[in-house]
Amino acid sequence: xxxxxxxxxxxxxxxxxxxxxxxxxxxxxxxxxxxxxxxxxxxxxxxxxxxxxxxxxxxxxxxxxxxxxxxxxxxxxxxxxxxxxxxxxxxxxxxxxxxxxxxxxxxxxxxxxxxxxxxxxxxxxxxxxxxxxxxxxxxxxxxxxxxxxxxxxxxxxxxxxxxxxxxxxxxxxxxxxxxxxxxxxxxxxxxxxxxxxxxxxxxxxxxxxxxxxxxxxxxxxxxxxxxxxxxxxxxxxxxxxxxxxxxxxxxxxxxxxxxxxxxxxxxxxxxxxxxxxxxxxxxxxxxxxxxxxxxxxxxxxxxxxxxxxxxxxxxxxxxxxxxxxxxxxxxxxxxxxxxxxxxxxxxxxxxxxxxxxxxxxxxxxxxxxxxxxxxxxxxxxxxxxxxxxxxxxxxxxxxxxxxxxxxxxxxxxxxxxxxxxxxxxxxxxxxxxxxxxxxxxxxxxxxxxxxxxxxxxxxxxxxxxxxxxxxxxxxxxxxxxxxxxxxxxxxxxxxxxxxxxxxxxxxxxxxxxxxxxxxxxxxxxxxxxxxxxxxxxxxxxxxxxxxxxxxxxxxxxxxxxxxxxxxxxxxxxxxxxxxxxxxxxxxxxxxxxxxxxxxxxxxxxxxxxxxxxxxxxxxxxxxxxxxxxxxxxxxxxxxxxxxxxxxxxxxxxxxxxxxxxxxxxxxxxxxxxxxxxxxxxxxxxxxxxxxxxxxxxxxxxxxxxxxxxxxxxxxxxxxxxxxxxxxxxxxxxxxxxxxxxxxxxx
Length: 746
Ligand SMILES: Cc1ncc(COP(=O)(O)O)c(C=O)c1O
What we know:
By secondary structure, the protein is α/β, with parallel strands linked by helices.
């Protein structure tokens, strides 16, 4: 239904900006001040979600110059936070563990929203053939679709049958007879009426059988030998009267009992929608109690309970930004005209009875998003200016807010935004007066995947694996350089992934041609010691000499200094970290305090080893934490590293090297899937080596894994330096922490 420009590259777009601390100021008609974005952000240090939203809005509007842009460039646009969507699904599952969410597509049929929900195993509630078609095209299982419209056109019923959509709701005898003729095996849920008179959008005026009618429907199902499987209800969209919930669940139970007396064994209860984020905890509690009272789990062990959630999931994920196109003031009021209105995406004011709250995004060209993000209109001082806000059409009905306070003055060309604009907004937008209803949507997606490839090669055998005296082992190192590197480059190129190659000085000097291929293909190159020597075995002087030589080698080779480092064997030392910072190194990828979140590297932790020759009290001491530094840690994880399970090392007694890559793939995929389900943002750093991943069985594993990961919404493959820059742009370094030197010692 909506043709929206997909903006997957929002991250890379931002990341490609030259400066992080000072994003370009807004391009506005002359006279507006230049505003450094960081300045505004640092006033509050907002939550990450808010920060991302602000950055995404800014990334769009800062490139628009109303003096020169194309006519369509100024259109209103949405930002959709898929992380918020995942948070809400998790919240639902925590609060309503007995109830499976089926998303009501009618609420907002944004393709990426639907795709994310599909990946999180939600079912779908479809109201029409087009909605069924849309979710089937995304790959939804027809068994996880409920055609939840009690009144359906015959061709649509046939369409459902032909496409194996075998579950629907009915609330009248005529519908039952249509089903008997055109989809006789369909699973039927009788939709009963609720008292939804206090809901924002009552539905029972149109749908729902009374209890008496419902009993007749059960009887007719028995007469026609139809597949009656359950009961459905909806307490009204925007349910404001929680008492109605218990009644609806109790009434459902009555129909269950009645059906049972007629020989049916009902197995499904559909509790509909009606949930809003602001009242969710309260209504979830009422539902839990009602379900436990009328459908106790012990009594109904096989009951499937589903819900048809719309507003709860879609509303708060979307923010709408509109542009101030005109102003008109007289003695009585100041009117502003914006380029979206009640015939467009703000139709929710008319159709859904929503009260929308305009907020200032830019004031006279100044980006003020964060300053007013958390303040409601009601909290604004009486002295705040009052406006009436109007949509773009020529109709007097097109009024968004007749009398609203704004936190700052706005001028022509400024932007206003509306939070919570995902439910029943774009879904019913029209083109009235020729204005577009197909607005761009930018997505906040936060799954940052990266490849860290350590070219251990011969250096690995010299420094760590114990093969330094074996010509055979060293030949395997030569394989890694000459064969493994080109194969891995080919594999990454196939998926258009730029990795980060951590190259020991020894490997660079031994395989200059292969390393040049890496550099010339646009991959990042970082430090990894010289001979893969263990930092903790070296003197300080040796550590410094190794760092100095390898830093210079890489700087000369790449024409710019490296910004990242992987410690050989992932062993770091406090002095080593300080040295890295002195050399301007910004991030490390060696530690495992977390497995999917970046953090500020802490150094100087101390702990007491057990000394059995001493009294216990001398070694019973907790770990002492050291100090955080300004080095970003992109965590390493032995479980997402190809080498421990799949590299044969003669000195390793437990036969490592023959793990089946399909098993390793399972472990890596489980990590990814768990992070995807549990975190609305995460990094997924893969650590591998051409020594191992250059082998055919492992290359094929990478291909399968990348294809699995790429099926997920929000996935972006970045270099580790891009991940580091992103983290730095959004997180303040700990107070007093040692920061990377800006004029690195070379
Ligand atoms: C049959 C049905 N199911 C689900 C919904 C979604 O309701 P809500 O957005 O309140 O969750 C609606 C809304 O109109 C509906 O009519």
